[in-house]
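Example record

One chain of 480 residues, shown exactly as stored in the release files.
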Amino acid sequence: MTAADSVCDDCRQREFASRAQKDALHAPQREFIVTNLLLAINIAIYVWMVLKHVSPTSPSSDQIIRWGGNYGPLTLGTEPWRLFTALFLHIGFVHLLANMWALFVLGRLAESLFGRWSYLSTYLLSGLAGSVASMLWRPLGVSAGASGAIFGVAGALIATLFVGKLPLPKQSTRTVLITLVFWAGFDLLYGIWKAGVDNAAHIGGLVTGLILGLLLGHHLGSSRQARVFRERLFMAAVFVVFLFAVFVWRKNGYVSDLERARVLISNGVVDEGIRQLQVAANRRPDEPYILLLIGEASLKKPDYPKAEQAFGRITLLKPDDPIGWSNLAQTFAAEQKLPESAAAWVEAAKLSKANGTAAWFNAGQVYAHIDKQEDAIKAYQNALALSPNFPQAWAELGLVQLRSGLNEQAIVSFGRAVRIVPADPNLRLLLGNAYLAAGKQSEAQEQFFQASKLRNAMQERSRQLQKQPTAQPNVPAIKK
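Predicted structure tokens for this chain:
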């Protein structure tokens, strides 16, 4: 190639980039066929999901999985197509709106600059790479959304604006470049700060887009040489993403064993399910989720020593996670190791912080059963500090206080339970007994009278229901 030929190639590329910039700014929206198609597909699928009774604001993980979300146990098993379908699902309206606005803005420039097929290829390859990265980082998570693909488009634009021979004023290029970098950086930082954001997909898409953009930036335009280069580039990129997926499958493919085990155990084939879990455990012996499933399956069998071993291992691997402690507490209770059960419930309650009501209540139940009344009182009081309108906890606290001779305190506790559930005759009887123990005969008689009245009313209501004629079943007629 001569120097003149090289200059002409540069000129053609500059001319193409100049037209692309003008198109992105001034062309009517109908010119952006790929961007419009992607917008339409994403929005149409969201509307379809809502029409099929999926929550428009906060769909559940099960709903996202049913519609094709990226879920490791299935994606890395027999349903790898989820890597693709997850790109067109969104977890609520806000998620959809944010992604579609970014796609609308970035897509126009990318489609004008790269051309339709190169832009679409960049979008899809970046999205797939993001999905695979998500399976690498969180193989047991559920993810969905176009963010990885959009980050890829942003990365490709950043790299192209940085290295491409574009006929734009430096100030204009710098402004667009800074805006793109700020947008990508802000979204990545937000993903670190905000729980529930799949930053692995963002990073996977962004890195893929940056690499593609670095190479595309030198081969813009419609010349045959540029087209051939882009075709070879995307073929190579498909192969690289495939190799990345194979690597992730070899590393995290064990999660597909978990799904098979879960199905077996839920269908009652516990022994075979445990064998499947053991296969996964041999590959990842210190994976807490595998240990959790082994423990739960062992409880169903029941094999309490094995369950205790699995849950105990979880508490060593994740000592700050209440799930291991609460499961270990239940296992200890099944083995009649009640002091150990109470201690585990207390640990779970402390780690649960604001959500520890049930754990404190269970600790109180165990302490009361082994006659550690002071510890039981403290546990119930901790539960009530978190949930003051918990009538059963007030009643159990009153019983322990009554057994400990704290009659006046028992009256207060039973009184709180009665105020929360005034129509419960059993709570009235307990309050009456507390009054009796405190020597308050008239108050006791009043509560016994109210309990009798409530019970008679309940019995009368029951008799009336029994006298009502039973409705005939509506059996459909059979045509003969």
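Notes: Confidence is low (pLDDT under 50) at residues 1-7.
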